[in-house]
Specification:
Elements: E1 6-7, H1 18-29, H2 42-62, E2 71-74, H3 77-95, E3 101-105, H4 110-113, H5 116-121, E4 125-129, H6 139-143, E5 150-154, H7 168-177, E6 181-185, E7 202-206, E8 217-221, H8 247-262, H9 264-282, E9 289-291, E10 305-310, H10 315-324, E11 327-328, H11 344-348, H12 353-356, E12 359-363, H13 370-387
Parallel strand pairs: 1-11, 3-4, 3-5, 5-6, 6-7
Antiparallel strand pairs: 2-8, 7-8, 9-10, 10-12
Helix pairs in contact: 1-8, 2-8, 9-13
Length: 388
């Protein structure tokens, strides 16, 4: 009998969770299903109340003293990051014309890094704070770029390729000491670990990373923070983001977030232990498989993201051969999986180019049990041995 395929690419997009699916079913049965939440009639007002409820649930799951009114719904993490960088940089410059520099970390997701050219077109200087060999962007590294001309700093909460958690609290203090704004892309970290948001001005999150629907995200921006809108046409989301809101998606996102928040500590501990055992088995002496970073899973690293380097096997070959064997993994960021270039994250960490071509990312949550992970380990070890 054929073995069931095993999906291990949760960092790209997690399978829909029951809480999210239940929220979508409840929406379909609601009298306001399909109504525009900006309409004044009864069904419109009902849809608006449901949307506000989702906003409240998301603010509660975020923590960091974000309020429901701070939450702006978007189409996903990419839009949230784009809006944050353009909107906050221009908002800061609007308040003080001298603030014309934006600091990004060198290990950001492409939805942050690829905004740099357009920021330059808008008159901003963009500089990049480096990461160390363990993939950490330190507060000291960011501080070296700070000055009275800095408008915005953006550093991700946890890296989507290595899982390394960044010292966002310490970085935010350095940023605010210079009078600049602080944004963090928490798309990969939200729902997996407790976020360091108390001193952050804005945070991006997305539904599909935690079992919610694809195509829904949010940008939370504190009310006192200047944000220039980047889309126009209806005044929705308090004028921050035009366009009729996806109430169904917002409710499903909020339900998934609430479910994650309810069992966050328990699941993080369980998944971290499974990831540690998987890594130890795969990276035993003589296997030809190595951990990208030597950081324990938990506080310093996302619990369910295993980043590996495999001798003599390039990323594309690894992904395709494992796919043939029934295992779905990725070479790093799924958003750039079609690229023939090595990971910019690994290069920024000082990993040699020829070694970075051999990277593999395995990601999962509590729904993947130990037996399944060991079955995957057997398959990867066989592949590595065949090349050895």
């Amino acid at each position: 009998m054929a073995q069931e395929r095993l999906y291990l690419d949760y960092a790209a997009s997690a399978p829909a969770c029951e809480a999210s699916l239940a929220a979508e079913r409840a929406y379909e049965d609601a009298p306001y299903a399909g109504a525009n939440p900006n309409s004044l009639h009864t069904m419109g007002r009902q849809a608006a109340r449901a949307l506000d409820g989702a906003r409240t649930d998301l603010a509660r799951a975020l923590g960091g003293k974000f309020r429901p009114s701070d939450v702006t719904f978007t189409s996903g993490g990419t839009e949230s990051n784009n809006l944050a960088l353009w909107g906050l940089a221009e908002g800061a410059r609007g308040k003080a014309r001298r603030r014309t520099r934006v600091v990004l970390s060198a290990i950001e997701h492409d939805s942050v890094l690829d905004v740099a050219p357009s920021l330059r077109d808008r008159g901003f200087e963009v500089v990049f704070a480096p990461a160390n060999r363990e993939g950490v962007v330190t507060a000291e590294a960011v501080e070296s770029f700070m000055g009275p001309d800095v408008a915005l700093v953006s550093v991700m909460s946890a890296n989507n390729e290595t899982g390394i958690v960044q010292p966002i609290g310490a970085i935010a203090k350095v940023v605010h000491a210079a009078g600049a704004l602080m944004h963090t892309d928490a798309v990969q970290a939200f729902g997996r670990i407790k976020l360091q948001l108390s001193d952050v001005d804005a945070v991006s999150i997305a539904a599909h990373k935690i079992g919610g629907p694809v195509g829904v995200g949010a940008l939370a921006v504190r009310n006192r923070v200047p944000l220039r809108p980047q889309s126009f046409g209806g005044g929705q989301e308090q004028g921050r983001r035009a366009g009729t809101q996806d109430v169904r998606g917002a409710l499903a996102f909020a339900a998934a977030a609430a479910a994650c928040a309810k069992r966050l500590d328990e699941n993080a501990e369980l998944v971290a232990a499974r990831a540690q055992r998987l890594q130890e088995r795969l990276c035993a002496p003589g296997t030809g498989i190595h951990a990208t970073v030597d950081v324990p899973y938990g506080a310093g690293r996302l619990p369910g993201l295993v980043s590996l380097l495999v001798d003599k096997l390039d990323s594309e070959t690894l992904v395709l051969k494992l796919d043939e064997a029934g295992f779905e993994v990725s070479a790093g960021s799924a958003c750039s999986s079609g690229s023939l270039d090595p990971s910019h994250v690994l290069l920024a960490m000082g990993i040699p180019r020829n070694v970075a071509f051999n990277s593999l990312r395995v990601s999962f949550d509590e729904r993947v049990d130990e037996e399944a992970l060991m079955r995957f380990a057997d398959a990867l070890l066989r592949l590595a041995a065949a090349e050895g």
